């Protein structure tokens, strides 16, 4: 099991009391599977991702990534774990304005201590995978919103993560571009065998989903996957760059 959350409870300080953002949540995400997380605003979706990303330590419960339990790891050890195992895609791409598409990705490898030449090859391979090989030399202001989000996704894959966590990647995009981004994430999940957990307002736009996790007031319930969607995804083709 690539990602395993067991009995997670997370509270935040709230005046004199504490607000329970996650209430005994458990979730398993195997390699190569896509979990959609849905639920109303404020229900705890981003908190769930932040715990899975080891960015927030829960009050109780365990997070296991590739059979390694994160409980008791030091800050440095958690940073290492994130660097090697976890890819994170937030709503806003947060690209560096002065860097080209290829450089945005290469920076990740520099941090990781890889050789520049290997990093360049890998960056180009990933840009190709997200349909942007021909835009590698462009800076963020020369790209569309959808293209920027593709670069964001490619960047999250630079360290070849086992777990890919994605928080509302389409909210800044129109319907068509949003659907293309969801298709892309689905395809990459299968190709790269990541355990992908994706927060989305609109799971209907997902072409393949293995499980739907619905969050309400910090409590999670799992819905069965739609097999029809899973079959149709295999015949889907690569999205075109916009
Ligand atoms: N850092 C924080 N400190 C205190 N309370 C917080 C913090 N972050 C989130 N909360 C609260 O925890 C609850 C869950 O928030 P969370 O951001 O996880 O919701 P969400 O489902 O992602 O919502 P949205 O769909 O609006 O992004 C909310 O009541 C929110 O106000
Ligand atoms: Mg959120």
Automatic annotation (TrEMBL):
Keyword Amino-acid biosynthesis appears in the UniProt entry: no
Ranges for domain ABC transporter: 3-242
Pfam families the record matches: ABC_tran
Transmembrane segment boundaries: none
Record lineage: Bacteria, Bacillati, Actinomycetota, Actinomycetes, Kitasatosporales
GO annotations of cellular component type: plasma membrane
One GO molecular-function entry: transmembrane transporter activity
Entries under Gene3D superfamilies matching the protein: P-loop containing nucleotide triphosphate hydrolases
Key words, A-Z: ATP-binding, Nucleotide-binding, Transport
Name assigned to this protein: Putative ABC transport system ATP-binding protein
